[in-house]
Amino acid sequence: MKLGVIGCGYWGPNLVRNFNAVDGCTVVGVSDLRPERLNYIGSLYPNIKTLTTDCNELLHHKTIDAIVIATPVSTHFSLGMEALEHGKHVLMEKPMTATSEQAEVLIETAERSKLVLMVDHTFIYTGAIRKIKEIITSGELGELYYFDSVRVNLGMFQHDVNVIWDLAPHDVYIMDHLLARTPRAISATGVAHFDTDVENIAYIAVQYDDNLIGHIHVNWLAPVKVRKTLICGSKKMIVYDDVEPSEKVKVYNKGVEYLQNRDEVYDILVQYRTGDMTAPHIDLTEALHRIAREFVDAVAEDRPALTDGTAGYRTVRMLEAANTSLKAGGKVIKL
């Protein structure tokens, strides 16, 4: 598969490196608006012959089979449509699009053209999330009670998107992947502390059936960097700390049981259960390598990718609803 990469800022070089290392794929072209970035890529990969500031050279290139889009989200829809309409398979950065309607159009176009449309939901391919998914699927946690995630740090403040669109996509798609449930409603509150309408702190609540709740806290104005998720089940609980250098996933055999006294209907007894903590082995394979492999294999096998357009749509839909709720002062948005 011959591949072109559009966008070579922070993430683009990582994509080029990983796709170059995957059997069955060759990066033949890179596009970026800044010549210095193209010179940098050219110095690292002299075998890449097409280095251009005009992305149309890649989009219209007859021998390129697939396009990777690593540009600002505002450009994703137009670039994605152009690539699909020229018969290219597409991998795009998260969030997939700026609106759920745009995502739907891309999905329909890819399906009609029988092309692979994939979104780079990076954390889904990490060893930590793969292990957590394995534990949940096995039933080891029991009935799921909640998903509670915190993603905060000091900066980087954005001028074009608020903190929900900047930080929350990761936690939204992780929650969607791990819980594998359809949310009923979503609400969000937040505030912009400076002379701008761009919120720098937000709290998102997602309601599911069976009393399952998801909660996400994102913040640009925190003194420390925190990337921590708690997943609670009736049998066991998981703490996932992405900042932790080792033992990112810890499984706690802890919980509570409610025992009702048969003699007194209203007498509820709470019994606490405390057991061992285990830290399962985590595969350290780079997530981007798995993403590149999954994209190449999905194209070769003519199948949807794990994080396909539909997964991207679900994430955008929840972000969109959360942002609508935020602007409406926390109004509950039915999904």
Tell me briefly what this model is:
The chain has 335 residues and is an alpha/beta fold. The protein has helices at residues 12-20, 35-44, 56-59, 76-85, 100-112, 127-138, 163-179, 287-301, 309-327; strands spanning 2-6, 26-31, 50-52, 66-69, 89-93, 117-120, 144-154, 185-191, 201-207, 213-219, 221-233, 237-241, 249-260, 268-278, 333-334.
Descriptive overview:
Helix content is 33%, strand content 30%. The chain is an alpha/beta fold and 335 residues long. The two termini are 39 Å apart. A hairpin with a 3-residue loop joins β11 (221-233) and β12. The protein has 2 domains: 2-115, NAD(P)-binding Rossmann-like Domain (Rossmann fold, 3-Layer(aba) Sandwich), CATH 3.40.50.720; 124-283 and 317-334, Dihydrodipicolinate Reductase, domain 2 (2-Layer Sandwich), CATH 3.30.360. The protein has a 9-stranded mixed sheet with strand order 14-13-12-11-7-10-9-8-15. It is built from 9 helices and 15 strands.
